[in-house]
């Protein structure tokens, strides 16, 4: 069921015509979150295959002097690497742009995760490899944020025991906060 849903939503996203406009709205929504700029270290993803474009967020955080990390995949694990300029990324795992450099070992305050879909409880449907679930499980993170186009937010996503929800899902029109009692 997850695989069929994943394929369907990736195909819809691939042909989505409002991705640039919606990504801009999501960027504005991200920076309107209360206290979002009070954190020091942010890990984001670099957009791939018409995902919500995070470059606006990355560039502003860098301009504001924040520590910005992007994932590098090695041996089925995500490694956070500090970036200072996104024009110096190399093509890595699955054709995704990745940073070169040393692995960051400090505290990460905010992680922005990609997803094929999210549900109203904050659970995400990823790409099926479990990279982010494994990464988030062993990290001490203050806030996790999912970015999605409106059509990527579903009422419920089938979840398994190892699936971890995000704290906030942002779309062009909504901010969905996970309820504390659901944690």
Q: Report the count of strand segments.
A: 12
Rounded to the nearest angstrom, the radius of gyration is 15 Å
Low-confidence region ranges: none
Report how far apart the termini are. Answer: 25 Å
Average of the residue pLDDT scores: 93
Query: Pairing-aware structural class of the strands and helices?
Result: alpha/beta
β-strand percent reads 25-35%
CATH topology: Rossmann fold
CATH architecture: 3-Layer(aba) Sandwich
- Helix percentage range: 10-25%
Shape: globular
* CATH superfamily label: NagB/RpiA/CoA transferase-like
How can the largest sheet be summarized?
7 strands, mixed
The succession of helices and strands, N to C, reads: HHEHEEEEEEEHEEEE
Q: How are the strands of the biggest sheet laid out side by side?
A: 3-2-1-6-9-11-12
Instruction: State the helix count.
Output: 4
Assigned CATH class:
Alpha Beta
Tally of structural domains = 1
Q: What keywords describe this structure?
A:
183 residues, alpha/beta, Rossmann fold, 7-stranded mixed beta sheet, 3-stranded mixed beta sheet, 4 helices
Describe this structure in words.
- This protein is α/β, with parallel strands linked by helices.
- The protein has one domain: NagB/RpiA/CoA transferase-like (Rossmann fold).
- The protein has helices at residues 2-14, 19-31, 55-63, 131-137, and strands at residues 41-43, 67-74, 77-83, 90-91, 97-98, 108-113, 117-119, 124-125, 141-147, 153-154, 168-170, 175-177.
- A 7-stranded mixed beta sheet has the order 3-2-1-6-9-11-12, sandwiched between helices.
- The mean pLDDT is 93.
């Amino acid at each position: 069921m997850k695989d069929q849903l994943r394929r369907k939503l990736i195909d819809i996203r691939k042909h989505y015509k409002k991705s640039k406009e919606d990504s801009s709205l999501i960027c504005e929504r991200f920076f309107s979150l209360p206290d979002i700029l009070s954190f020091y270290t942010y890990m984001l993803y670099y957009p791939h295959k018409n995902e919500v474009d995070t470059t606006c967020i990355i560039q502003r955080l860098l301009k504001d002097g924040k520590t910005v990390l992007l994932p590098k995949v090695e041996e089925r694990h995500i490694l956070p690497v500090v970036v200072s300029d996104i024009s110096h990324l190399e093509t890595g795992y699955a054709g995704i742009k990745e940073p070169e450099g040393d692995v960051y070992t400090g505290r990460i305050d905010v992680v922005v995760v990609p997803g094929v879909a999210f549900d109203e409880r904050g659970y995400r449907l990823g790409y099926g490899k479990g990279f982010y679930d494994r990464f988030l499980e062993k990290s001490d993170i203050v806030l996790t944020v999912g970015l999605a186009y409106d059509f990527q937010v579903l009422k419920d996503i089938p979840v398994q025991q190892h699936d971890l929800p995000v704290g906030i899902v942002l779309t062009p029109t909504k901010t969905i906060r996970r309820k504390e009692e659901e944690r």
